């Protein structure tokens, strides 16, 4: 009888354990359902980029950028996620404390949230806010900057791409003069930038162009959801064409195409700017879209970042660019026509500043040792729809240097901004057309690579 009782008790014990296990499993499944359906209320909804851009265009002088602390250790991740990634779809999201702070600050200072986005590389939550009343923006920014809950407060800054309306060339033989002038045609016999990842932070890029379509590694649009317009955008297509056009990938006759400086590099097309006019020669960006694009460049493992744009100094953007430089990314930026070296992005230490090369005999060109010079007038490049055109401006001189950097990084993967800048400055010199220009062939020869230019 005792033996029978013992067996019965063991059966009851096992049944109780099974019941407890089943209840635990149900609780765990319920939690999973919660996370899958609501992201446990920690992941904010993705912002409407198009609506945000329209608000900014309508009221640019009423916008403020705000950042509050958003430490990763306070966040709960989705099941199966990691702490990597950017934007609302990643594991790094806005914590309850950061969200509460932004909400409270907006209410206290009379602000309306336009968009918000966590920046994992800086451990902050960044919000763009619109001033609701008639308070002066400078006053509101000053009050926010003094609030202990605020890491950063600044006006939303505006930036412009740096292209000019070009003159037409007079001789067909000069169509790709710039490529030869910097020694890239000879250097391509030694290196072609194979698989070097270059982030072009600009307007959109024609990803269907015959000489670009095989060069696109990734795309992001931080302006709107109009991907047709993304492929019609002119300035970004022109910049990408100078960097990485590959006539060898075009189905048409190769003799009719053009070659970029690094025709085997990979382009990460990051749209942070939008066109202002019908011909696409002028485009504008702002702090928030540029910050998103810089974070994307970091997470897409860009080895080079091209910034063919310029504008006022900006604390948030400077911090992100400084982080890229610190991580060994080569960052190349355009000098404004005024030559202002306090403008973003060339004011950030480590950024390679590039200006259009001046005429031969212009002694003022060598006045600033921090600047590299490349062809920036009458440059042949790609335009949307499978076409070609000539462009001018420091935007395109910057693209020449980014392509050149890709050739060097392809040979020396550990080269950073400082090493690339020093080598290109050391090997720059006069040409038949300009007082001082970079020369990638001479740079390679310095690295004990046998590069010989035609006619030398």
From TrEMBL:
The keyword Metal-binding does not apply. PROSITE patterns: SUBTILASE (PS51892), SUBTILASE_ASP (PS00136), SUBTILASE_HIS (PS00137). The active site is at 202 (charge relay system), 235 (charge relay system), 395 (charge relay system). Keywords: Hydrolase, Membrane, Protease, Serine protease, Transmembrane, Transmembrane helix. The chain crosses the membrane at residues 24-46. The keyword Ribonucleoprotein does not apply. GO terms for biological process: proteolysis. One of its GO terms (molecular function) is serine-type endopeptidase activity. Residues 193-428 form the Peptidase S8/S53 domain. Pfam families: Peptidase_S8 (PF00082). Belongs to the peptidase S8 family. This is Serine protease.
């Amino acid at each position: 009888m005792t033996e029978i009782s013992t067996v019965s008790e063991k059966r009851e014990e096992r049944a109780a354990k099974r019941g407890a296990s089943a209840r635990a499993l149900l609780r765990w499944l319920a939690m999973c359902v919660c996370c899958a359906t609501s992201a446990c209320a920690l992941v904010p909804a993705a912002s409407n980029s198009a609506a945000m851009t329209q608000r900014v265009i309508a009221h640019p002088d009423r916008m403020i950028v705000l950042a509050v602390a958003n430490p990763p250790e306070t966040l709960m991740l989705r099941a199966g996620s990691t702490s990597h990634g950017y934007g609302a779809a990643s594991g790094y999201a806005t914590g309850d404390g950061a969200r509460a702070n932004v909400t409270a600050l907006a209410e206290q200072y009379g602000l309306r949230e336009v968009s918000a986005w966590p920046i994992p590389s800086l451990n902050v939550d960044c919000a763009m806010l619109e001033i609701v009343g008639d308070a002066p923006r400078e006053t509101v920014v000053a009050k926010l900057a003094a609030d202990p809950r605020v890491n950063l407060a600044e006006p939303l800054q505006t930036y412009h791409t740096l292209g000019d309306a070009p003159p037409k060339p007079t001789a067909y033989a000069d169509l790709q003069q710039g490529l030869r002038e910097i020694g890239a045609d000879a250097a391509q016999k030694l290196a072609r930038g194979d698989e070097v990842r270059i982030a072009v932070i600009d307007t959109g890029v024609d990803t269907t162009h015959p000489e670009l379509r095989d060069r696109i590694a990734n795309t992001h649009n931080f302006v709107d959801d109009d991907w047709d317009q993304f492929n019609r955008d002119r300035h970004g297509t022109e910049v990408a064409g100078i960097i990485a056009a590959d006539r060898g990938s075009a189905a048409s006759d190769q003799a009719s195409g053009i070659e970029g400086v690094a025709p085997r590099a990979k382009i990460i097309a990051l749209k942070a700017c939008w066109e202002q006019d019908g011909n696409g020669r002028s485009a504008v960006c702002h702090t928030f879209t540029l910050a998103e694009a810089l974070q994307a460049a970091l997470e897409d493992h860009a080895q080079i970042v091209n910034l063919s744009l310029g504008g006022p100094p900006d604390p948030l953007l400077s911090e992100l660019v400084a982080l890229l430089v610190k991580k060994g990314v080569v960052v190349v930026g355009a000098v404004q026509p005024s030559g202002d070296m306090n403008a973003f992005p060339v004011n950030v230490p480590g950024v390679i500043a590039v200006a259009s090369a001046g005429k031969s005999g212009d002694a003022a060109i060598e006045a600033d040792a921090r600047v590299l010079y490349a062809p920036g007038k009458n440059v042949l490049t790609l335009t949307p729809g499978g076409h070609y055109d000539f462009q001018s401006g420091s935007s395109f001189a910057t693209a020449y240097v980014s392509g050149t950097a890709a050739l060097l990084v392809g040979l020396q993967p550990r080269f950073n901004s400082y090493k690339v800048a020093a080598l290109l400055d050391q090997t720059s010199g006069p040409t038949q057309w300009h007082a001082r220009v970079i020369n990638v062939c001479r740079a390679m020869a310095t690295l004990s690579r046998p590069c010989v230019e035609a006619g030398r």
